[in-house]
Amino acid sequence: DGTVTDTVPLPAFLTGDFSGLGAVIYDPLTVHQDAASGNYVRNAFSGNQIPATRLDPVAVAAAKYFPNPNTGAAGAQTNNYFVAGNSTSNSYQWDGRLDHDFTQKWRMFFKLSHNWNNNTQIEDYGNAASQGGGGPAAGGAWSASMDHTVTISPTLVADFRYGFSRSYVARTPFSNGFDPTILGLPQSLKDVAAQRVLQFPRFALSNGAGLGDTGYVDLIENPMAHSFTASVTKVTGHHTIKAGGEYRKLFINFSQYGFADGQFNFDQSWTQQITTSANGTGSPVASFMLGLAN
Asked: What is the pLDDT of residue 212?
């Protein structure tokens, strides 16, 4: 089991009503130069409300995936959503080894191991826009080694060893297969994203609120390695001399996508009074509802 505390916008904000924000939001279409200060400034939205006709349709569609606040004081604007749920992590392993003496001077062993695991983080919103930290993952590893030890003489021993290892990890987003055009994003974005993975786009607000996976998914890892070592040990009087070599062949086999369906970041810049200074005004949620990413 686990818990998650998130920040989600107040429902009124998602309709354009920022009268309860505690700060003034400004209209990005009204930039003009203030005669007294010389700064480029904006006019405030009347009543601290964005007209419905100005709300961005993609933002309106995406905003429906935000859950309502359920914790904190009335009107709390941060850390106002709490969820408890299952966060699983399972791991398993077995090992096997065979030892065999061909002769008194020739001995060998063979070892085979396998482990596998799976984990799922809390799906905090319970829908396609859950942030979730990357989504469910499953993986494991195989390894094998074979060693031959040959006693050439009472003072000379040779050892030969081969090793193989391969691990695998696959992580998929909670929103795997999500069609971004449902939100009103263009078909061209979907066409490009479909070459990698279709998932809910990432919307990140500077006040901590967000929609969509925060991790890089899909993630596919299949690194593999071959190794061969050989050594000779010679005992002479009071000295032991050892020489050998090792050869390794490594395969990375790694694939991880960034945000194939888009990453859109929002802060207060578009809705603050002075274009070059926040001065305690504006809101990242307001910028989001206007569809004005950084």
From this structure: 92
